Write a sequence for this structure.
């Protein structure tokens, strides 16, 4: 990772913008004129040899094509170069976010906005196609949307230039979810492939569903090649049917049946928009129009009293508080109580000297400090998720009960003094903080009483401690919450140090016992990662514990030895596969089913470990990360090779019908390769799956 | 991962299928947070949830925090034995309202 202020060619790095599968993107400035730029980097040392050429050529392609295109809706590329093993590409800095992210945050964009996005995309494509460039990877993550909803099309890394020899038929580049059938079959593509992908994006925008989605790659491919998607108006009944025919044409299986150009597609879309205006529906999937008054009041338990009296209000408050105690405290109930309290106090201000009002107040104060407090304290104590406490019959409203308690306490304070409630609050806070401090002994026992730390148990306890923290927040005990946060950080650091120690012992002393211990630790690799993530999250923004944080010694040490864990997992996978293979040969029957869960579990763990380490990538661990990458890649490549060899030697019918466990393994490998941007490996598997689907 | 999504009135019902762990929990997280943003009343239908790891639990915790901050409502339904046990051990039973069926979870929103 590059530091702020560091120079790269004629640019200066300023801040980190994001991490992609292939590298890191920074915000920077051009030294000569302070022009802000985005700088995309790839650390060439981290590239695996088989993937290296593909990634480098993708990078060069993006630079070459990007510098050739000049259009307001296409990202402008300025420059590319290499320095100290870092390959970089500078481009226009776009203040916006990927369409994919936008859709996650705002899944229901208004219809007009969706149309505007697609029309801009088609405009950009019309220009690129006019320049002889086919994008080939149109998908939401390659469309940046600014705050004013103008878009910029990015990533021409796998684009095809008319007449160039850079791509070959048979290739399977791009994301299968958005790919046209001809692209999927590896045939030569033209601009109509982009129009198909644009159709998939449009369908997704309108319905919030992808037209072709499936559990496995094989099913997905089958659907793209064979199945007609449901008309968008059938998925989202609020949508005018006029868009159905536009999308039917955009998503036609045969290119000849699709729109012939982006312009034609855009014209059809504009006409559909005019037709749609004749209907009144103007929202897309999932958006519901509710009268404002109805939605604001819809959650209320009881009708709002228009002209309440204090007697009625108190009666309502008492009755709802009892419901919270005997049934369940919920947020709407707490909101309703808060509203009634406000109304009550407003009424009191208007008639402050009424005698009956004083009596009412006193009765209410006594009731809160008496029977309510007793019942509430008992329930809070009973359901408290303290470490080690068995929860029986918990109602799931523990935090809301804290909220109820604070709400009543505040109300009583507004009426006068509340000593009993104040003392109760102190007791609860004491109980919660005390539980955290006492956990220190339990943690030591879990860490040191046996050879291996009991990570699953510790992880569950840490979750409970986090819940106690939430409760302190609810009680407004901010100082105590901060103290607890520091303590939790120290706990997490202690556990990570123990893990590091075990790995160190294994590395320094390869005896079978040390290996066994680390292997059993690996069964809990997910817990290790969750722990490390906790360490980073809890340590963020704190300077109190130097050892933690992304560059702290504990994390550094863990990352430095992560490759050893990767190697162990990889060895186990290969070993299992070889044993299954020889058993199959010996008995003549497939022996891959019984160990499938273990195999996929290990594969997943290996993937988790790599993804976690690669996401952090602090500069000090480049060597270690490279080693881990090598281990993981070698393992996946070897497994792919082995699996494909077995499938190739089978009779085709048998390979389709009886080799399901092997195909599932390959699908998981392809998914991992896609996540890690290991294009060569992914393509290899995808080609085999495609072959199978077409043969079927 | 496969996440089934359906609407029942104003409630969004999300049904994660299979395992919820580190490899797929981000996908589920974005679905869940979007659903909370969109409707304010969400039920996670655990009928087909076979396994939930610590990373999966953390996603639910993030969602619970968001629900608290935005005054949304989040309930769980039809928890199988294995995830139920994980919920009890990690204390989640104290802070999540868990219902035997999706219908009961929806009814609890009032």
């Amino acid at each position: 990772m590059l530091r702020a202020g560091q120079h790269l060619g004629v640019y200066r790095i300023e801040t980190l913008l994001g991490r992609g599968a292939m590298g890191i993107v920074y915000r920077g400035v051009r030294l000569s004129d302070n022009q802000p730029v985005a700088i995309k980097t790839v650390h060439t040392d981290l590239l695996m040899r088989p993937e290296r050429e593909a990634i480098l050529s993708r990078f060069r392609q993006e630079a070459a094509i990007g510098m050739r295109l000049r259009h307001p809706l296409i990202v402008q590329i300025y420059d590319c170069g290499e320095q100290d093993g870092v390959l970089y590409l500078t481009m226009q800095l776009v203040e916006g976010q990927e369409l994919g992210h936008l859709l996650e945050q705002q899944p229901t964009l208004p219809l007009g906005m969706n149309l505007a996005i697609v029309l801009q995309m088609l405009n950009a494509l019309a220009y690129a196609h006019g320049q002889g460039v086919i994008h080939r990877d149109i998908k939401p993550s390659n469309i940046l949307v600014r705050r004013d909803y103008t878009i910029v099309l990015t990533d021409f890394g796998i684009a095809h230039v008319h007449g160039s020899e850079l791509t070959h038929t048979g290739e399977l580049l791009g994301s299968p979810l958005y790919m046209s059938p001809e692209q999927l079959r590896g045939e030569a593509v033209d601009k109509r492939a982009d129009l198909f992908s644009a159709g998939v994006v449009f369908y997704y925008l309108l319905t919030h569903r992808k037209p072709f989605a499936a559990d496995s790659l094989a099913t997905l491919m089958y659907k793209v090649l064979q199945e007609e998607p449901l008309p968008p108006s059938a998925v989202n009944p609020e949508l005018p049917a006029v868009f159905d025919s536009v999308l039917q044409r955009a998503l036609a299986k045969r290119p000849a049946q699709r729109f012939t150009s982006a312009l034609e597609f855009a014209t059809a879309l504009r006409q559909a928009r005019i037709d749609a205006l004749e209907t009144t529906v103007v929202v897309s999937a999932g958006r519901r129009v509710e009268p404002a008054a109805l939605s604001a009041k819809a959650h209320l338990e009881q009708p709002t009293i228009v002209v309440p009296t204090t007697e009625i209000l108190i009666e309502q408050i008492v009755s709802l508080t009892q419901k919270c105690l005997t049934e369940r405290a919920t947020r709407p109930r707490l909101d309703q109580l808060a509203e009634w309290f406000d109304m009550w106090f407003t009424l009191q201000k208007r008639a402050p000297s009424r005698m009956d009002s004083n009596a009412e107040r006193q009765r209410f104060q006594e009731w809160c400090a008496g029977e309510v407090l007793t019942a509430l304290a008992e329930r809070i104590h009973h359901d408290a998720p303290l470490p080690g406490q068995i929860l029986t019959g918990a109602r799931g409203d523990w935090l809301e009960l804290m909220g109820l308690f604070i709400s009543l306490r505040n109300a009583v304070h507004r009426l006068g003094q509340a000593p009993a409630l104040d003392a109760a609050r102190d007791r609860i806070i004491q109980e919660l903080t005390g539980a955290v401090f006492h956990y220190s002994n339990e943690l030591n026992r879990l860490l040191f009483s046996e050879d291996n730390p009991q990570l699953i148990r510790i992880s569950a306890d840490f979750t409970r401690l986090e819940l106690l923290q939430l409760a302190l927040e609810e009680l407004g005990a901010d100082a105590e919450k901060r103290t607890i946060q520091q303590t939790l950080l120290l706990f997490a650091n202690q556990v990570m140090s123990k893990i590091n120690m075990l790995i160190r012992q294994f590395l320094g002393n390869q005896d079978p016992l040390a290996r066994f211990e680390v292997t059993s630790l690996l069964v809990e690799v997910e817990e290790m990662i969750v722990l490390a993530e906790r360490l980073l999250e809890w340590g963020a923004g704190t300077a109190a514990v130097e050892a933690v944080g992304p560059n702290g010694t504990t994390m550094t040490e863990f990352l430095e030895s992560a490759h050893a864990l990767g190697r162990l997992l990889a060895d186990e996978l290969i070993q299992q596969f070889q044993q299954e293979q020889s058993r199959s040969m010996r008995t003549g029957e497939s022996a891959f089913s019984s160990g499938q869960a273990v195999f996929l579990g290990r594969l997943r763990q290996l993937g988790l470990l790599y993804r976690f380490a690669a996401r952090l990538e602090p500069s000090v661990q480049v060597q270690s990360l490279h080693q881990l990458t090598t281990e993981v890649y070698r393992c996946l490549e070897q497994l792919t090779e082995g699996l494909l060899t077995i499938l190739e030697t089978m009779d085709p019918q048998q390979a389709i019908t009886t080799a399901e466990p092997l195909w599932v393994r390959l699908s998981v490998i392809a998914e991992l390769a896609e996540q890690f941007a290991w294009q060569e490996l992914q393509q290899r598997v995808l080609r085999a799956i495609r072959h199978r689907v077409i043969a079927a | 991962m496969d996440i089934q999504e359906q609407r029942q009135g104003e409630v969004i019902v999300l049904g994660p299928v299979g395992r919820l762990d580190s490899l797929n929990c981000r996908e589920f997280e974005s679905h869940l947070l979007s659903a909370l943003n969109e409707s304010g009343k969400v039920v996670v239908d655990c009928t087909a949830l076979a396994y939930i790891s610590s990373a999966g639990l953390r996603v639910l915790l993030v969602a619970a925090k968001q629900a608290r901050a935005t005054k949304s409502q989040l309930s769980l339904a039809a928890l199988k034995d294995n995830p139920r046990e994980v919920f009890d051990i990690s204390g989640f039973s104290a802070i999540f309202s868990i219902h035997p069926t999706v219908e009961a979870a929806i009814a609890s929103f009032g």
Q: What stands out?
A: The mean pLDDT of chain A is 83. Chain A has 25 helices and eleven strands. The two ends of chain A are 47 Å apart (CA to CA).
